[in-house]
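haha ok so turns out i had the wrong file open the whole time. this is the CORRECT one, sorry everyone. sequence first:
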Amino acid sequence: MRKFLLLMLFCTTAFAARHPGTDAFLARAAADYGLHKDRVLALLDQAEFKQSIVDAISRPAESKPWYQYRPIFLTQKRIGEGVDFWRQNRDLIARASETFGVDPEIIVAIIGVETSYGGNTGGYRVIDALVTLGLYYPRNLGADRSAFFSDQLMQYIKLAGEEGLPATDVTGSYAGAMGMGQFMPSSYREYAVDFDHDGSRDLWRSKADVVGSVANYLHRHGWQAGAPVARRAVAGSGAALDKVSSSNFKPTLTVAQWQALGFRSAPDLKSDLRAAVLKLEERSRDTYWLTFQNFYVITRYNRSPRYAMAVLQLSQEIGKRIAEG
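then structure:
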């Protein structure tokens, strides 16, 4: 009887320690992803809820106004390291640029903004990050993104099996992004490429795979080589400020149409070029920008327009240094 009670106590404790929503997750993992329930459960049992992950997602850098966000990424150190990274990998970056039709300075800048060229790829276990955000997503953050992170958790388990990754050891960002380019699991599975042709897609140690994968991601989302990304605009006194984009930067109106709405920009822009308008909060006043297809493509990498502008401006600074020799 005593052994039976101890067994019941152990089982009750083990069950109580299960993550919320485990049974539903296991059912979907098997039905939608063909994952073996026992393997998934074994991984979930090794994952830990991390309050630090909840804290981090509650205060993302992307929520800062532009005048506070820009100095995080537009530093002399990051610009200099970007120049060094480009020079050290010139042939590789040129090959990726030519293969995928993506401007080289943008490839370099994305790696710079994401991880300082591999200097900071994240210290959270990916399994912890995705379990925390997929099964414990905080209710006080507005829109519930638990479904997204739950799906990323399933994608991660699939990815670990496909790429032979140690699923309980891989580290990344608090959101579960991985490697030098900070790919989420679904993006890793869809867009990562074996650019060094060694039989695996390694976004941590293979600079070829990293550079090629970033370029492929932008290419697949519609990058236009040599085309403008964004240009400063002046909003006239009667400008249609209600038309300014807040979340969706897919170009819809032409430059001429924006001019008719009160937004003037560089005279060399083709009047039929499609654009959106972005407002950035500066310390003393707002600035306005016409943004084009390539800007929209960068927001497919990270939805924040401040992120996209940081990538653009970092790429410009690095490009100037490279051009100067």
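The chain has a mean pLDDT of 93.
again sry for the mixup
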